[in-house]
Write a structure and sequence with these properties.
It comes from Anaerocolumna aminovalerica. This is Acyl-CoA hydrolase. InterPro entries: Cytosol_ACT, HOTDOG_ACOT, HotDog_dom_sf, Thioestr_dom. Keywords: Hydrolase. By secondary structure, the chain is of the alpha+beta class. The chain has one domain (about 5-155): Roll (Thiol Ester Dehydrase, Chain A). Helices cover about 25% and strands about 40% of the residues. It is built from two helices and seven strands. It has helices at about 30-50, 135-155, and strands spanning about 5, 10-15, 55-65, 75-85, 85-95, 105-115, 125-130. The longest helix has 22 residues, at about 135-155. The relative contact order is 0.21.
Length: about 160
């Protein structure tokens, strides 16, 4: 019988304060630094879901909606949206949080992570229990994104 897990079981939140070493020449957060943090959150989400080590297989739809600046508090929230046999799609939303707790979205990304065993071979991941309308919408979107990824691979992209 397949193991099943809920979205909430692997939900992950990470907090960062933007420091001087994170800033580019324009006074904004390096996009690559944010991508690093997103990749870490995605990895934690996928590890929690699969209970295996994981590797990043694809980055989709990385959308920078606004910048972050020195001393901003960033909140990164990751959740499983779709699972295949050995892969998991993880959505990561990044917000700038003001001192009063209000959050402004600055980035959304979808990463595809693959669970691997100790010999680095892909392993089957738990099925995802989809419970809410929002989770169902993400699942349907994940199916479409998976088909687009397959098409891009077939076309050499």
């Amino acid at each position: 019988m397949d193991i099943e897990k809920r979205v909430e079981e692997s939900l992950t939140e990470q907090i960062q304060i933007v420091m001087p070493e994170h800033i580019n020449g324009s006074g904004r957060l390096f996009g690559g630094k944010l991508m690093e943090w997103i990749d870490i959150v995605s990895g934690v989400v996928a590890r929690r879901h699969s209970q295996y080590n994981v590797t990043t297989a694809a980055v989709d739809n990385l959308q920078f909606k606004a910048g972050a600046h020195l001393n901003d508090t960033l909140v990164l929230i990751g959740r499983i949206t779709y699972v295949g046999n050995t892969s998991m799609e993880v959505r990561i939303d990044t917000y700038v949080e003001s001192m009063d707790g209000m959050r402004k979205p600055i980035n959304r990304a979808y990463f595809v992570m693959v669970a691997i065993d100790k010999d680095e071979n892909p392993v089957r991941v738990p099925r995802l229990i989809v419970e809410t309308e929002s989770q169902r919408a993400e699942w349907e979107g994940g199916k479409k994104r998976t088909e687009l990824r397959k098409l891009r691979r077939k076309e050499g992209f």
